[in-house]
Design brief:
The protein is built from three helices and no strands. The chain is an all-alpha fold. The chain has one domain.
Length: 69
């Protein structure tokens, strides 16, 4: 079973297929046509996906690898 972080990371890749690629910035025209994300973009995408997961998915599921209370 996946952890919360693995699920959120998977959601990030679903949202942006190039989520894990490092975008080369500062190279001029290549910035516009290159694939990838900057560290700031990855942090923003992860925080949005975490918010969606925490608010709209997690309340309706039980992660098997987390202790129940």
């Amino acid at each position: 079973m996946k952890t919360r972080e693995e699920i959120i990371t998977s959601m990030c890749y679903t949202y942006r297929h190039d989520y894990g690629l490092e975008k080369q910035v500062g190279t001029g025209f290549a910035d516009v046509i290159s694939s990838g994300t900057t560290e700031q973009e990855r942090q923003w995408i992860w925080s949005v996906m975490a918010q969606i997961f925490d608010n709209d998915i997690a309340p309706y599921m039980e992660l098997k690898n987390e202790p129940t209370t």
